[in-house]
Design brief:
GO biological process, one term: response to reactive oxygen species
GO molecular function: heme binding; metal ion binding; peroxidase activity
Strand content: 15-25%
Protein name: Peroxidase
CATH class of the largest domain: Mainly Alpha
Largest sheet: 10 strands, antiparallel
Number of domains: 3
Number of helices: 13
Shape: elongated
Bound molecules: protoporphyrin IX containing FE
InterPro entries: Ccp1-like, Haem_peroxidase, Haem_peroxidase_sf
Keywords: Heme, Iron, Metal-binding, Oxidoreductase, Peroxidase
Length: 558
């Protein structure tokens, strides 16, 4: 199903939205659609295609774009329709900042990972920055330990064609900080993943302070900012054995690093500063065992301006504000040719999960959710018009939500927001649907005037009638509903098998399936498709025109 939009209010989609006022290509917002789907070739991790797509999308779209829709969902809700498990894990694994028994902190790992990725930036020629080049740099000594490898493996399988790895790395910093009680860092999207390693650039603890100052200058930070950024980074996590055996002894938890926290607290707070200033710090990068200062990089950094900056950071408010600014600058440090989006704020109205379905009881059913940025329950009604029409001939074209849920996440909590998500699942008369909109406490919310338009209903994926085929080679029976007021010349799917690599298979035709009774004005077509984890595009050619449902997925099959 394709849905059209115009105006400025966000919308979503189970398949695609486009603008009615600007001629735009149709894009899917489906996370499963994945990075490399358009290629007939096999791509390892899809970096190449990812890059191409990221460029294609940007510039073609005005706000709100699929990119913003996806990032907004992940940032504020911790999920987005169609998100692969990996993505949900990514947010969930931050786990409210609770460190493990050995002090291992996933929040710290994300922040360190992001800094090491950004550290390739060269302010003199505008190259490098937060661009996922880190994935090609993990064999360097400077990137050893501290959860770096693990943070990397958590990325495999993540992005789709809109959201880059580097956007996810940047988001990790925002979420890690806020989940640990730190400030809200404004977030932008639009980073582009690099295909190659950048030059080495991460400081190592034995270096003299002059090297640190020069390294941070190259990364775009003054000496004062260097002090702030190191303090903000080192409020979380600590030094690991076996990475620094001379600083930290081995622990007694088998197969786990032994970690000495920099400031003894797992929270994002300014204890890193106050303990340093009052001499109570156990930070091993301030003083090593027996006062050895070879690896005392924090001491050299913090004291490099006579502690002036550290003293200013002794105010918790100033520490929080400084970290919000500097960590924000850190994640927005990108190669010169990359243009980031505006800050992504929670969208006032967010439509998602639009799915038109030929219901088993013979009704055509419209499913969708609408998330409203309101902390108070509202009277919400969904309205729509008939297909290809501006009227409702049956007189019954409105529905109330079947349920509503309060959305709570740490970031929303920090913003003192608790939006409400309204779920609609309503039968639609056989006149189908043209455009829908909402009435909220008597006020019309219609996507800036144009409403949310369903672009076609001729061919629909029918996940309810599709199934996993047990026995023998792994396969799915894929079922499509095709409106039976005309006969398609062909119904087919292009499938993409997903694993570490993604492979596009040749098209597979679906044939009329007499075993499935017609329903809601639709006949059903099916084919058995080999594979265990597929995404696919569904097509029907009718009267010389091609209708399409993009980026469907076997994950939708119960
Ligand atoms: C002069 C600059 C810096 C030096 C020399 C330095 C050095 C180190 C060292 C030696 C460790 C311990 C790693 C391990 O045991 O494997 C560490 C950990 C860490 N660094 Fe830095 N760092 C610097 C700047 C930064 C910056 C700018 C950030 C982020 C804004 C940052 C974030 C972290 C974090 C979060 C950890 C803890 C990781 C964990 O617990 O897994 N560092 N750093």
């Amino acid at each position: 199903m394709l849905v059209a939009m115009s105006g400025r209010v966000l919308i979503r989609v189970g398949s695609a939205y486009k603008s009615g006022c600007i001629p735009l290509p149709i894009f899917s917002l489906d996370f499963f659609s994945f990075t490399m789907r358009t290629s007939p070739f096999v791509f390892k991790f899809g970096v190449l295609i990812h890059l191409v797509f990221a460029r294609l999308v940007r510039g073609d779209y005005h706000w709100p774009s699929p990119l913003i829709d996806q990032l907004e969902g992940l940032l504020y809700e911790g999920k987005q329709e169609g998100l692969p498990d990996r993505a949900v894990d990514f947010v969930a694994q931050l786990n409210g900042c609770i460190p493990r028994d050995n002090n291992e902190s996933i929040a710290a790992e994300w922040i360190r990972f992001a800094y090491h990725d950004m550290a390739t930036h060269n302010v003199d020629d505008g190259t490098g920055g937060l661009d996922n080049s880190i994935s090609s740099e993990l064999d360097r000594a400077e990137n050893v330990g501290g959860g770096m490898q693990r943070a990397r493996f958590d990325f495999i399988d993540f992005p789709n064609k809109y959201v880059s790895y580097s956007d996810v790395i940047a988001m990790g910093v925002v979420l890690a900080t806020v989940e640990c009680g730190g400030p809200i860092i404004a977030y932008r999207g639009g980073r582009i993943d690099a295909m190659f390693a950048g030059p080495p650039g991460v400081p190592t603890p034995e270096q003299p302070v002059e090297d640190f100052i020069e390294t941070f200058r190259k990364q775009g930070f003054t000496q004062e900012e260097m002090i702030g950024l190191v303090a903000c980074g080192h409020t979380l996590g600590g030094v690991h054995n076996p990475d620094f055996e001379t600083l930290v002894p081995p622990g007694d938890i088998p197969f786990e690093d032994n970690i000495e926290l920099f400031d003894g607290t797992p929270q994002f707070d300014n204890a890193i500063v106050t303990q340093y200033l009052n001499g109570s710090t156990n930070n091993l990068l301030v003083a090593g065992p027996n006062g050895n200062e070879t690896l005392s990089s924090d001491l050299r950094v913090f004291s490099s301006d006579g502690n002036v900056t550290m003293q200013s950071l002794a105010s918790p408010q100033n520490f929080a504000a400084t970290c919000a600014t500097l960590l924000g600058r850190m994640i927005d440090t990108v190669p010169r040719n990359v243009t980031l989006t505006d800050f992504i704020n929670p969208l006032p109205v967010k439509v998602a999960g639009v799915q038109l379905a030929a219901g088993a009881d013979g009704n055509l059913v419209l499913n969708l959710t609408m998330r409203l940025l309101s902390n108070t329950a509202r009277q919400v009604t969904l309205h729509w018009t008939d297909r290809d029409s501006t009227v409702c001939s049956s007189g019954f074209c409105s529905a109330t939500p079947i349920n509503s849920t309060l959305i709570k996440t740490p970031l929303l909590g920090a913003l003192e927001l608790a939006p409400i998500k309204y779920t609609f699942s309503t039968p639609i008369a056989n006149t189908s649907i043209g455009t829908f909109w909402f009435e909220i406490d008597g006020r019309i919310e219609n996507n800036g005037g144009s409403g949310y338009a369903i672009e076609q209903d001729r061919v629909l994926f029918s996940p309810d009638r599709s199934s996993f085929v047990f026995g023998g080679v792994q396969a799915f029976k894929i079922v499509a509903a095709v409106r039976n007021d005309s006969i398609p010349s062909v119904v087919y799917i292009n499938t993409y098998q997903r694993s570490v690599t993604v492979v596009r298979s040749p098209s597979i035709n679906l044939t009329l399936d007499a075993s499935i009774p017609s329903a809601a004005g639709y006949d059903f077509y099916s084919a058995q498709v080999p594979g265990s984890d597929l995404s696919f595009d569904l097509f029907a050619e009718i009267d010389g025109k091609t209708y399409e449902e993009e980026f469907r997925d076997t994950h939708f099959i119960a």
